[in-house]
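FAQ: What does a ligand-bound record look like?

Like this one, built around iron/sulfur cluster:
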Amino acid sequence: MHIDKFEEAMMNCRFCFMCRHLSTIGQVRGTEVDTPRIRAAMLYGLRTGTNSFDDSDFVEALYRQELSACCVHHCVNHYDENGLALAARADVVEAGKAPEKVQKLAKKYGKSAFTAKGKGDLAYFLDATTAADKDVVASVKRLFAAAKATPVIIEGGSIGKALKVLGYLPEAKAAAEAFAAFLAEKGVKTLVVSNPAAFDALTRDYPAFGVKLPCKVLCLSSYLLQAKVAFKKPAGEVYYLADDFMRNYDGCECPEKLLKALKATNLPFGTNDEESYCCGEGAVVFDELNPALVKELAAYVAERADHPKTDRIVVLSAYTKKVLKKYGKLDVVTMDELAAACL
Amino acid sequence: MKIKEDSYMYEMIRTELTDVVGNENVDTKFADKFGHSIDYYWIPEMWHDRGRPCPKPDFVVHPKTTAEVARIMKIANQYKIPVVPWGGGSGSQGGALPIYNGIVLDMKRMNRIVKIDKQALTVTAQTGIITKHLEWGCNKAGLSTMHLPASIACSTIGGFLAHRGTGVLSTKYGKIEDMVMSLEVVTPTGEIIRTLPVPRHASGPDLTMLFLGSEGTLGVITEVTLKVHPQPESRQFRAYIFKDFHTAMQAGQTLMRSRLQPCAMRLYDETETKTHVSKVFGIDLDKGAYLVFGFDGRKDIVDLQMKHAREIMEGEFKGKDLGSKGGEWWWENKYKFFYPGYMFHVPQAFGTLDTVADFSHIENVYWAMKKVVNTEFPDARFIGHFSHWYDWGCMLYARFIFPGDKVPPNAEEAAALYNAVWDKAIRAAIREGGVINEHHGVGLKLGRYMKDLYGKAMPVLEGIKQKLDPNGIMNPGKMGLAGC
Ligand SMILES: Cc1cc2nc3c(=O)[nH]c(=O)nc-3n(C[C@H](O)[C@H](O)[C@H](O)COP(=O)(O)OP(=O)(O)OC[C@H]3O[C@@H](n4cnc5c(N)ncnc54)[C@H](O)[C@@H]3O)c2cc1C
Ligand code: SF4
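The answer part, i.e. the structure of the complex:
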């Protein structure tokens, strides 16, 4: 089973309580089942027969995990309880026990038809979530203009992240191979992305699948820093909400560096920077999978804002912006928008 | 009592419960019930490890308000269904386990900070709040509860009240019972009561103290007002290595008798210093016993206290000074001791023989327990440290540990071995003047010693229970009280 590769996490988390305060879903639902401890104990129970994927509630709980990886980041041993959950989902799918809504989403994200607009070896991947936010798209355009670059814009579907998160590993790998082939065909040498989930897929998932990209991958923050784009207006006071992927999944520190370049005064959000302020970004399609929970997660974040109506909150992903604005009624911009406003 | 899930009565009761808290807050699914079948008690952990099912609740109910708790208690009374309050499930004594099924009342949705009073320096909170979140909320206001237990990340404040728990700064700020101003409690029959608003009074016996440590057997604590403190201007630590544990113990006692006021003190015996403290700090403390202490408050006063404490340590007792850095190691790593890799875990068999005694008895308690474990259970290791120090004595956090391959694979045999260690070690401690226990509570694990411990006072406790809980539905079978 896939979970066997995460033996260390399973055997240790099953009796450990130390990251309970960061189990975001457990926190908003007030439950035990939504904690690393009980999830791991249930997965261990597959071996002894106390638990089984025939129990649809157990499977449901596995798909309720928000995959923020806050617990992994916090853990002194960094046991990969997030990887364990992903592996468990893959086992669920292989066992043919994926819930119907998961199957539907997998079908949706299994389709992709990439398109490329423009010429050259510099490309920008505009994922569907970012593409749906016109303000972010406009900001990205302004930023590339300021960097005097006209990247090829690649759009048109899923690069495998959603499939991986849903537990469809062979399909996710196939999507990764298709995307890599497309990039090679278009002669892309540098690929820039805004979406941290896409960045994570390209830099961590692809190597794990054994898929080689023909290009280097940069997050937009790092691209702007390398291009030495001049920012004239200081960003002022902001609350930057650390990103699931960039903070907890060992992404990169470029966002923080860019904030400095933007002369932003980064105020501490909420009660503590150890706290989880995630809204399901790590689970990529969480708003489609568990909309009611996303609402609660956003409300949890909003409750912790100093001045919910006026505080300027900066996030990395268009996903987080969308849900925090919609459900948390907060004043949220993405880093791209903040940077564009400083030009 | 077990309500058959396929009976209409199950559905009748579920309907009544959902009427109180809503459908989404009554869990009847297997996975949710499973989540409330194992706490931090070794026996259910081992039972699960061996693939054996643990008792599960019939319903897991998540109230949001005190009024909801009261209504749930009335329903439970009507049908005589056991109710077990559940906080974070981090208790090590099996206190929150639904051994007779029934309703588990998971308190974690009752997680609001109701008020921070900056004039009286108090915080009022619902008791289902995770202690770390409570602390963070106070920190945001520039204050601290000063209640910093190792399980701060997973336990609710209600769990600490129910177990008379404690944190690392207990020597100055006290245990939880020293921090409480007043409580709101839902009695087993569903009445909402409040104890007097201040802890110092002469208006009869103190009802607050009746409920503290009652482990969910006398009611559900729904709200608490705690003292809070300004963050100290300075907090300094210092550590020493003494040639042996006895010398370190004398040094620690002398410091306490001097009536200097450390905020924390901890002394590890030679074995634990070598095997455990070294590992957590990542340095080699090969010989001797490690003792750490700290002071906090105004800087000039902290400096002065530290100066006098150093004289005690370095004078007569010739402690080897590890400096403030040696003390900071402990403060910075104080929670690391409890993460996997540093803490013991199944398949090992381990237990914390938590005992408290005055300074005249505590060393004898240590030696007596050590002797029992070493001679009668040669497969087990014994280590100990002294965690919480008072003017008159201290707490011994002794542990026995069997390596996994020395624990019988058969669950019943493993449980029998485990219980035998407790029986012998605890009785040895009681013989030497020790009290079980200081902050972990009684629960299921130690209930069988309550009659020994209380003697003729046990019927008094049983009488109180009978009066408050005539149907015997509140956490039955715990704390040595009747099952159902
Ligand atoms: C890693 C680790 C480290 C620990 N370190 C410490 C430590 O430093 N100090 C310490 O004191 N303990 C420590 N403990 C033990 C444990 O955390 C405490 O006993 C804690 O008080 C339990 O709180 P909980 O919310 O998890 O309660 P639970 O385990 O859920 O319940 C404990 C008991 O309290 C009752 N209860 C819970 N909530 C209520 C309520 N609102 N009203 C009435 N009864 C209630 C339950 O019925 C049960 O009998 C540690 C445990 C772990 C796992
Ligand atoms: S991730 Fe680390 S801290 Fe969290 S449950 Fe697992 S072992 Fe414990």
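Follow-up question: can I read anything off the structure? Yes, for example: The longest strand of chain B covers residues 349-358.
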